[in-house]
Design goal:
alpha/beta; OB fold (Dihydrolipoamide Acetyltransferase, E2P); Rossmann fold; 3 domains; seven-stranded mixed beta sheet; globular
Length: 444
């Protein structure tokens, strides 16, 4: 039987007047029209706005502002000419200090609504640079024949198409202010339509651009990329397949980016596609706060779950008796071991394990730990939390990039495992975006 084609629903074209009541977890304003929640881009609580619908579903609708009739005091003019088109940022219309205050409010709301837990004490938000802070990114690349140019950057807001941008103010200037030059050199290549993305990895003093290539570049292509790299002081690598195939241009040395933690006397090396925090200033402040809060001694045996390349593990080891780091990504585990050797840290062990699966039979999981560090992905740590019954740590430090799963896990720790939420706070790891890094301390 032939399938009936689905017709796209025709959206109302007339503007709707409404007052924004609250803020959604992704930074959109929320109002209600005829009993249905409407999520409105670029709208703030308390504002009266005119909006037009961009999508209507059964249970909710989405919209964008066409006019602000009464402005919230924290509203400012976005600094980037591409704001509203490029989907990389969603908070530039909010004054910088107000952004993090709103995000703290969102975290509180998630703790209350999802976790059913109260926060009695808050850390002061950690604040850093608001522009040029981003040192890791995966940028899209697209050759558009009709425009006879290559687009380099991020997708349009709520679309699959790449935005046509000339610069990015949140990216480190080594890349963010040179998008047009990068676009131009790719546009000169014979394989300009065979490059889907660029992995950006910027260390304290090194910049590596790993270019994904679906076909091998010609010798002329390689020389053009080499000339660009030398002119702009960057290292260009080619990635024909997976991350393990990233290699520098023929004849060029491998540049391994690194970042330092001066307060701990540590340095970390990483490969371009490996996860690191995007904002080094906030990362250093965050680690300092973790160490201050955990108050480690040589009697402490610490378990660091979702440890990555050792970003927390090695600083913890400078103060604790011993630390065990566990991570699901084997290449990251091997790199963590290498970073331990690089820093001459000998009281650490690293293991690879899928922390979303049963880990009970792993020897490291059968030990006792005095304190536990958690830094999971957006999915959170709910699968591993039941093992705390065996480990019986007196203190749990939880760093999260997703307030919703942090709140969910906080509910498990408090209501099922007998811990108390002592303190929480937010960190401005991702200014001008809807994302926020959070931290919570739990004690027995």
């Amino acid at each position: 039987m032939a399938q009936r084609s689905r017709k796209r629903k025709t959206l109302p074209t007339e503007a709707v007047n409404a007052t924004i009541k609250s803020l959604a977890h992704d930074g959109r304003g929320v109002t209600h029209v005829d009993g249905k929640a409407v999520f409105v881009d670029d709208a703030l609580p308390g504002e009266e706005v005119e909006f037009i619908y961009t999508d209507i579903r059964k249970d909710y609708a989405e919209a964008k502002v066409v006019a602000v009739l009464s402005k919230a005091p924290e509203r400012v003019e976005p600094a980037c000419a591409h704001y509203g088109v490029c989907g990389g940022c969603s908070f530039q219309h909010v004054e910088a200090q107000a952004q993090i205050s709103l995000k703290q409010g969102l975290l509180l709301e998630q703790f209350t609504r999802i976790g059913k837990v109260a926060v009695s004490d808050w850390w002061q938000p950690l604040i850093g640079p608001h522009w040029g802070y981003r040192r890791k990114a995966r940028m899209g690349v697209k050759y558009v024949a009709k425009k006879e140019r290559v687009l380099v950057g991020f997708r349009e807001r709520r679309q699959q198409f790449l935005a046509e941008i000339e610069s990015c103010k949140v990216m480190h200037p080594l890349v963010g202010e040179r998008l047009m030059a990068l676009s131009a050199v790719i546009g000169e290549l014979t394989i300009r339509d065979k490059i889907p993305q660029i992995e950006v990895a910027i260390g304290d003093s090194q910049c590596v651009l790993a270019i994904r290539v679906l076909e091998p570049p010609s010798s002329e292509d390689i020389e053009k990329l080499r000339a660009y790299a030398h002119e702009h002081g960057v290292s260009i690598c080619l990635q024909p397949k997976g991350p393990d195939t990233i290699k520098p241009l023929p004849g060029e040395p491998e540049v391994i980016p690194s970042y330092a933690l001066p307060d701990q006397g540590l340095a970390f090396q990483f490969k371009p596609a490996m996860f690191t925090q995007v904002n080094y200033d906030i990362n250093r402040q965050m680690i300092n706060r973790v160490l201050e809060t955990m108050a480690l001694t040589k009697d402490d045996v610490v378990l660091d779950l979702f440890c990555g390349l050792g970003n927390f593990t090695l600083p913890l080891a400078t103060q604790a008796g011993s630390v065990v780091g566990v991570e699901g990504d084997l290449p990251l585990v091997e790199h963590a071991k290498m970073n331990a050797r690089l820093n001459q840290i000998t009281n650490v062990e690293f293991y690879a394990a899928d922390l979303s699966k049963d880990i009970a039979l792993h020897p490291w999981a059968q030990r006792r730990y005095t304190k536990v560090m958690l830094d999971p992905s957006r999915a959170g740590a709910s699968e591993v939390l039941p093992h705390l019954k065996l480990w019986q740590p007196e203190l749990i430090m939880y760093v999260s990039c997703n307030p919703s799963t942090l709140a969910r896990d906080a509910g498990i720790l408090v209501h099922e495992l007998g811990y108390r939420l002592v303190k929480a706070g937010v960190m401005d790891m991702f200014p001008h975006t809807g994302h926020v890094e959070s931290m919570a301390l739990f004690c027995k």
